Amino acid sequence: METGSHPYVDYLKTLEFGGREGNYFDLPGLGGDKYDRLPYSIRVLLESGIRNCDGFQITSQDVTNLLDWNQNQDKKIEIPFRPARVILQDFTGVPAVVDFAAMRDAVKSLGGDPSLINPVCPADLVIDHSVQVDYFRSSEALTRNQAMEMERNRERFVFLKWGAKAFKNMLIVPPGCGIVHQVNLEYLGRVVFNSGGLLYPDSLVGTDSHTTMINGLGIVGWGVGGIEAEAVMLGQCISMVLPQVVGYKLTGVVSSYATSTDVVLTITKHLRQVGVVGKFVEFFGPGVAQLSIADRATISNMCPEYGATVGYFPVDDMSIKYLRQTGREAGSVEMIEKYLRAVGMFRDYSNSEQDPAFSQILELDLSTVVPSLSGPKRPHDRVSVSDMKTDFSQCLQNKVGFKGFQIPADKHGASAPFSYEGKDYTLKHGSVVISAITSCTNTSNPSVMLGAGLLAKKACERGLSVAPYIKTSLSPGSGVVTYYLKESGVIPYLEQLGFHLVGYGCMTCIGNSGPLPEAVTTAVEQADLVAVGVLSGNRNFEGRINPHTRANYLTSPPLCIAYAIAGTVLIDFEKEPLGVDSSGSPVFLKDIWPTRAELQEVERQYVVPAMFRDTYSKITESNSSWNELEAPDSQLYPWDPKSTYIKSPPFFDGMTQDPPAVRDVEKAAVLLNLGDSVTTDHISPAGSISRTSPAARYLSSRGWVWPLIHRGNSLSYTS
């Protein structure tokens, strides 16, 4: 950045840290009392505006509008925002790389140097491909699923590996390393940048809605579309309306039987009822200090489900401890803390004098949170575990809707006997057929993951088991999770209950549960049963999880195991046992639920910085199949005209030195005009297509021949 002619050069100061120096813009000195009253999330936007003020994309008036947020928040003033970086999930990252490759072609055709086309803004692309879980309940599940993933997506992976070599300022994390948001939290998140000696807050936009998970670490970021992400990569600003900021005050302490999952499901329902669409939510209050960064990240992760743009937790002492725990370099951690204190972005949640002004204040006493699920069709329809049996029974008879299936009264007792692996079983309404510990929401949180492991250990020691026809799976968000689960000794017990490691990705949460056993699907179809999936995810819209689970519930990893053992959601854990032990004594959930003291001791002993350093020091080379892929070394990508997967877009064909005149858009038509709560899962499910679905009948009528092969958000077929 050229500082000599910068309009705010007089506010540059020098900060010393670890024997080094860096410059930064003195925000408190510029803003005075106005700055001290700004929400911390708005302070990040303000700093970006000041630093990037060029009189063209960002003007001094834009900076003034941000500084005067308190009186401007209701005026719908448009502001520019230039994030510090971009993060790309491979589903949406591929088109970005495709477009950059096509730009190089166009520049070459005009006689320019194609090697100059690179992202201006740092871009991290994580190949978070969620392969269909075809293989499970096997020690070989991970290897076989990853081999299938590589086979199905080889062409895309070759293209991305070419991009990793061809473009500067772009980091690509190979497949099989984790979910993009957990890798971002544990490894990619900088918190503070030091770019050429200039210090400034980390901020980002990402091509997945759950990019907000990084808000839990005190980094402002949210999900955007691919076009917006590419624009930021090219150095352009995002245009947005100056947001209102809802202050969400947390008090009290979470009870020993509740988890961060229960907290976020409670908050999601509350904020959906209030309405926070288009707003920032910023958490404050003494209760925040009781939450770990993993707990905060869980709450921030479900920001899209409660409708806000961000769910932000400013940096505090707990954030600094997390950076050390995850193996961040000591000098960087010192720089981060000193810089944030200098610019007034470091919080003490117990000090109410630091509380800024908010547009509105809401409050939650954490001690009132109880074990919960959300469903059967929406993530904000929370139901207490104690009410689950009654609630599901009511859903069976309710009219078809978000909380109803309209099963005739005489069919409520329907059942379907079947045989599986030489034994006889019976399915009924409410029978659990999928139980998945999955998704970025929970698998980054050691307390709930170790809680699941300890519960599994106690369950096995009491002789409890999970029926073999239930599709159980464990798909963590990073290799660190596997590391501490193994070190703590709980993996054998998880596997004994069927929760084998099947891969690293969203998997069941995104709809890639894979097929259920044929005997199960036949029983469900013949008796028209409302079968159930339970998962530690963030979305459970109709059609998303599996075509044979009409009811799907979000819950914590320990409760995923509990419901798998029970085999049904029609159970009252307080009054009914999970099963009986070898002596015939009943075993209740409370008998095997790990105590908070147990969890804290195991986490203290086994979640250590060395695990994070070891995992992430080799992350770009940890996948041997990726390492063996041969990718072109050319500056231009050698497009294959016969490919049905990777094609050069026509946007830059015929591009001229001078841009053509702007023309009117004529005869444009509305593609879809939809009612409330219709999601992309209704329009274009990411999971496999059932043979008996309307979509399958349509495709068959168009000449498609089964089996259809599921490839992420696309399909191929044999003919």
From TrEMBL:
Cofactor(s) required for function per UniProt: [4Fe-4S] cluster
Subcellular location: Cytoplasm
Pfam family, one: Aconitase
Aconitase/3-isopropylmalate dehydratase large subunit alpha/beta/alpha domain boundaries: 69-567
UniProt superkingdom: Eukaryota
SUPFAM superfamilies (alphabetical): Aconitase iron-sulfur domain, LeuD/IlvD-like
Any one GO molecular function term: 4 iron, 4 sulfur cluster binding
Cellular component terms (Gene Ontology): cytoplasm
Keywords in alphabetical order: 4Fe-4S, Cytoplasm, Iron, Iron-sulfur, Lyase, Metal-binding
Catalytic activity: citrate = D-threo-isocitrate
EC number(s) from the headed UniProt entry: 4.2.1.3
Enzyme class, broadest EC rank: lyase
CDD domains: AcnA_IRP (cd01586)
PROSITE patterns tied to this protein: ACONITASE_1, ACONITASE_2
Family note: Belongs to the aconitase/IPM isomerase family.
Annotated protein name in UniProt: Cytoplasmic aconitate hydratase
